[in-house]
Write a structure and sequence with these properties.
single chain, alpha+beta, Immunoglobulin-like, 7-stranded mixed sheet, 6 helices, elongated, binds 2-acetamido-2-deoxy-beta-D-glucopyranose
Length: 388
């Protein structure tokens, strides 16, 4: 912003001498900034300076000091001369915080031992574009026509300024790598134009894997900040910010996300993610390149998918677990029952076929031994899955 302002300020005023004897200057002042209205005279002795605009008194200087009790309220506390310059014949007026009502023809009248001298300054006030924002909103009111025809409205605000809003309906079809929408604003007196762009796309990654979420500024940028934010359904949280002026990166997802600074400086702000997890990293990633007079936003919907094989294994193993526990319990129960019957039979000592019961017991033993070891193997697998 500061850089942009300096540029406009450099447009300064163009001196021009009118047809007649009275010199006249044209000054373009910038809204809410300070402005100098030039006035020069041939110095000689005691000097009285009288700045007026039509019938309004803007500033009076007499006998070495300012006389402001007659000053018009509109200029109150906003004017000053350069006292140390007056002896050199410089009666220029400084006007602070210019507003659109400051426009007009100012008269600088100087009286000294050379007599009366007068000078006119035509003041124009311009308001350069302050900001440009591009955003996605839901339709409110009548929808703008299709086929990429924007509807543009100018709205007057207080202070004689206005804001401009232009709406465009998004294209219905959405290719996976998205469309880029541009909004450009040129003002009649400004040589540079402002531009905002927006892109939406979709990507998918795999659980446990790595993914690069691309983001490219459409034109090379200077003095920008790059911000990556992430949101699920909730408010976006900042992941990472890179400032091209300081070269400083602050990263809240350190170890998980990074941007290559050299690539970023040449407009490639792609985010490299690793150790992806479905539940933590599925959501919308927003890349925000913000430079003076230029902004680029890129929304990427990222879906981290769990591999089909992983899912069936995880689901299957938890099933097996339950069966294994049930079988083990059943086996124990049968073994206990058999043991109990056997003891009872031995005690009564009356002949029942011992072979059959022993077979049952062996089968139960096999189950008892086999299944728990298998299920502990599965447990290990499951933990391994979860930690990847
Ligand atoms: C200017 O100041 C001098 C001495 O300080 C005084 O004699 C004179 O009247 C003053 N002139 C005006 C216009 O106030
Ligand atoms: C008068 O002085 C001011 C303050 O030093 C300076 O900015 C301005 O350019 C000077 N004007 C002229 C015409 O010399
Ligand atoms: C706005 O300015 C840019 C660059 O100065 C130029 O390329 C573009 O054509 C202009 N657009 C309009 C609508 O004047
Ligand atoms: C970037 O900032 C530097 C230093 O403030 C300035 O000299 C340069 O003109 C700026 N570039 C742009 C494109 O604003
Ligand atoms: C983009 O970043 C700029 C500067 O940090 C900020 O002012 C702006 O609000 C951000 N825009 C969005 C949509 O997050
Ligand atoms: C993510 O992808 C899976 C499989 O392709 C799909 O079933 C799911 O609906 C997707 N989720 C989102 C939020 O797009």
């Amino acid at each position: 912003m500061a850089a942009a302002r300096t540029l406009i300020c450099a447009l300064v005023w163009i001196l021009s001498v009118a047809e007649g004897k009275v010199p006249e200057a044209r000054v373009t002042c910038l809204f809410s900034e300070d402005c100098v209205l030039p006035c020069t005279f041939k110095p000689a002795g005691q000097t009285a300076i009288h700045w007026t605009r039509q019938e309004f008194l803007v500033h009076d200087f007499l006998n070495g000091s300012d006389w402001l009790d007659q000053q018009h309220a509109h200029y109150s506390a906003r004017t000053s001369l350069f006292p140390e310059q007056i002896a050199n014949g410089n009666a220029s007026l400084q006007l602070r915080m210019c507003n659109t009502q400051d426009r007009g023809r100012y008269r600088c009248h100087v009286t000294n031992e050379n007599g009366n001298q007068e000078y006119f300054v035509i003041v124009k006030v311009e308001a350069p574009i302050r900001t440009l924002a591009l955003e996605l909103t839901r339709l409110s009111g009548p929808p703008p026509p299709d086929s990429l025809k924007p509807t543009t409205r100018k709205m007057a605000t207080q202070n004689g300024l206005y804001s401009v809003e232009s709406k465009l309906r998004k294209l219905p079809a959405k290719p996976s790598d998205g469309y880029t929408y541009f909004c450009t604003v040129n003002s009649s007196y400004d040589t540079e134009s402002w531009r905002a762009s927006l892109r939406e796309k979709e990507l998918s990654g795999e659980e446990g894997g790595a993914l690069t979420v691309p983001c490219h500024a459409p034109t090379p940028l200077e003095n920008f900040t790059l911000t990556w934010a992430f949101s699920r359904a909730d408010e976006p949280e900042d992941i990472l910010t890179f400032d091209s002026r300081t070269g400083h990166t602050s990263n809240r997802w350190a170890g998980l996300a990074r941007v290559d600074q050299n690539h970023a400086l040449s407009g490639d702000g792609s985010l490299h993610l690793q150790n992806l997890r479905n539940k933590d990293h599925t959501g919308t990633y927003t890349c925000n390149f913000s430079a003076p007079r230029s902004r680029h936003l890129e929304h990427t919907c990222v879906n981290i998918t769990v591999l089909a094989a992983d899912r069936s294994l995880t689901a299957g193993s938890s099933w097996l677990w339950v069966i294994a526990i049930l079988l083990a319990a059943l086996a124990l129960f049968i073994a206990a029952l058999v043991l109990f019957r056997k003891m009872k039979a031995e005690r009564s000592a009356v002949g029942k076929p011992a072979e059959a019961t022993e077979m049952q017991a062996v089968q139960a033993d096999e189950r008892e031994n086999g299944i728990p070891s298998e299920s502990s193997h599965l447990t290990k697998d499951q933990t391994a899955n979860e930690s990847t």
